[in-house]
Amino acid sequence: MNCRRRLSWCAALCLLPLAPIAARLCFLQVFATRRMSAMAKSEATREQIKLIQRGRILDRSGKVLAQSLPSWSAFLDPSMMRQSKRHAPAIAKALNLNPAEVARKASGRSKFVWLKRKLDLAEVDALQSLKVEGVGVVPDEQRYYPNGDMARPLLGLVGLDGAGMAGVELQQNKELSGIARKVPLLRDGAGRRMELAPHAEDAPVPDLILTIDRTIQHFAEAALLDAVQKHRPEKATIVVQDPRTGDLLALASFPSDPLKLPAVQDAYEPGSTFKVVTVAAALEEKLARVDDVIDAENGRWEVSPKIFIKDHEPDGLLALSQVIERSSNIGTAKVGLRLTPEKFNKWARAFGFGARTVLAFPGETAGKLKETGKSSRVVLANNAFGQGLSVSSLQLTAAYSALANGGKLLEPRLRVRQGSSPVVVRQVMSEQTLRSLNAILEGVVERGTGQPARVPGYRIAGKTGTAQKIDPATGKYSKEKYVGSFVGFAPASDPRWTILVTMDSPRVGYYGTDVAAPVFAKLLRNLLGVYGVKPDQQAPPPDGALARQAAEADPRTAARP
After folding, report:
1. Looking at residue 512, what is its pLDDT?
2. Number of alpha helices (DSSP H) and beta strands (DSSP E) in the chain
């Protein structure tokens, strides 16, 4: 064989191994192009979760009540994680978890398990430094309440998945909810990432602005805390409303539970604070006059055979104004019995009782009025002085705001809406009745059971209440547990605030005169000073004249509600 042929065979033998490689390359380049491109793309591209945070909640002046801050959450994929038992102690240490719990999650069959939600930056760094296959961190957010427990029963709370669970967070969850969006990224050979399709920045979720005033909320909670420490009630509430607009300015509760807002969700028997409704109904129906004289039966009256109504103090003949000033149950019951059950309920509903408000707060109570068809003489008499029916603190505050603003029942507002005007539900009473009632309520504070609510230099209108509670064990009224309350508005010449204070089952004292009226006065003094409201009452007479007036005063004005 000549040299030329030998060289050809050698070349053929050398090139022969390249034939399969060439064929494979031809197949990949020609026939498998799409599949190989997809594989390359999957290796070079990644997805990243981008969060648009949950909206902030602000008070009426723009101060932050709730906001979301960046956080992270750790997860693992048990199908990818290798040697889980070996890594479990290190992961547990990084995240302050139980190693056995981490090992249990890692040995599961699912492809995604949360390790820990809402990590801080130190935990993220510690976990990522381990570089464990199948363990990762994703962006998250943490709800933060910068004022601590302030207004938490109102604000509510957010769950681990970022959804509202109670309070405003639940009521406005749809509007407050943030957005989680996947963003495609391209990774180069050095591991650097960039967005595949840059886009305009997402707009943040709009802020939710409440009518709550953080300053008033602070003073309300401070006054409530002092009263709780002194009187040790089981529960207590303060509601502050602007009677001119219906705006709720403060809702304070004890105990402070983000799952419960008692002022809106709890119903209670109002007692004597409800007496103005009875008097208003009788005046409007022309069944009573302000100068009527009513026999208070010396403190004990048999309203029906063997059923008695009692007063705290024995009284004889009282003018209608004195019936309210001295908080006579007997006098009010006699006024109430001039009405029919249908008329009584009509006027109670006119003041907003027996129905939920437009606030539409989660768990809001409608209270309860007796069905007129089942009402008896005794039921009507008891209802007249606030016994045997139930209301919410929100309803009672709104009713007194109607007395303060010219007789208009306004829709209570919790949210600021630009350009919106107060919504009048109805005109509850005539101007003549309103003037009579307000004069009576001022007399309650000046001469009657509401004297501890006085603030020198200011005219105040209000009413005390001391209501017995039903004992669940016996179904009868307890002789030990009461709800002491005071509700009023000031300054009476141009009301700025309607304030309700309730003390449920206080252990030290129980009369509304003692446990609620002083709290009203303390809170009102702070508000008058902070907002610079000028006095609307003349200065008291000189000491000598004051002493003579005191000597001539009716000694019965010291009576309790």
Report:
1. 97
2. 21, 21
CA atoms within 13 A on the CB side of 148: 5
pLDDT digits (tens, 9 = 90+) for 197-207: 555 566 788 99
**Residue 14, CA distances (Å) to 9, 10, 19 in order:** 9, 6, 10
Gap between the Cα atoms of 67 and 83, Å rounded: 40
Ramachandran class of 345: left when φ > 0, alpha when ψ lies in -120 to 50, beta otherwise: alpha
Domains and CATH numbers, the chain: 48-68+142-209 (3.90.1310.10), 214-530 (3.40.710.10)
Give the whole-angstrom CA distance, residue 331 versus residue 309. 10
**Helices of type H across 459-537:** 512-515, 517-530
What pLDDT score was predicted for residue 556? 45
DSSP annotation of 415 reads B
Q: Are 72 and 192 in contact (CB under 8 A)?
A: no
> What whole-number distance in Å separates Cα of residue 239 and Cα of residue 273?
15
Nearest to 151 by CA among 63, 212, 62: 212
Beta carbons within 10 angstroms of residue 561's beta carbon: 31
Q: Write the CB contacts of 266 (distance below 8 Å, at least 6 apart in sequence).
A: 235, 365, 392, 393
Provide the token pair at 485. 């309350």
Helices (H), 18-60: 18-26, 33-44
Lateral strand order in the sheet of 193-195: 45-52, 179-187, 193-195
Q: Which of 373, 296, 304 is nearest to 340 (CA)?
A: 373
Supply φ then ψ for residue 540, to 5 degrees: -65, 155
Please give the Cα distance from 327 to 262 (Å, whole number).
Answer: 26
Q: Which of 386, 190, 413, 123 is nearest to 273 (CA)?
A: 386
Q: What SS3 state is found at 120?
A: coil
Pairing type for strands 477-490 and 208-209 reads unpaired
Confidence band for 547, pLDDT divided at 50, 70 and 90: very low
Burial profile 389-426: b = 16 or more Cβ within 10 angstroms, e = fewer: bbbbbbbbbbbbbbbbbebbbbebbbbeeeeeeeeebe
Q: What is the pLDDT of residue 555?
A: 44
Is-contact 319 372, C-beta < 8 A? no
Residue at token pair 């109904």: 281
**Within 13 Å of residue 512, how many CA atoms lie on the same side as its CB?**
32
pLDDT tens figures, 319-363: 999 999 999 999 999 999 999 999 999 999 999 999 999 999 999
Q: Per-residue pLDDT for 296 more than 90?
A: yes
Mean pLDDT of 120-125: 88
What distance in Å separates the CA atoms of residue 170 and residue 325, rounded to the nearest whole number?
Answer: 42
- Report helix angle 393-404 to 431-446, nearest 10: 110
Residue 191: per-residue pLDDT: 47
